[in-house]
Model the fold of this input.
Amino acid sequence: MAAQGTDEAYNAFRRLKIRKTRWVTWKIDGTDIVVDVESDRKQNYKDFLKALPDTAPRYAAYDHEYKTADGRLTGKLYFIAWKPMNSNQTDKIVFAQSLSKFRSQMDGITSYQFDDIDELEELLENEYIK
Done:
């Protein structure tokens, strides 16, 4: 059975879009998708990576600011489906069933799926992202 995003879950994404926070993680709690952690603007990608559990899936959104090859400061919003390999199989199934509908409510965001923290870190470390 797919979980549904709560109003607070979507409000957290809206705060991210207007740059009130740097990142947000959401978890599934019963039949609801709820805010797990919402950062302040001063946190960076290393803080974000530390907040991701290594045994449970999470949805996350990250406001990545970086410099382009020509030196301009710009940014991208990433939606990240985090499902570590050592997650519970049942959790992974509910997570996968809920992903599409939850993600579809968030516009202007690039989606990725990761199960390895090193791959995610590589994405966020890069100064220039195509």
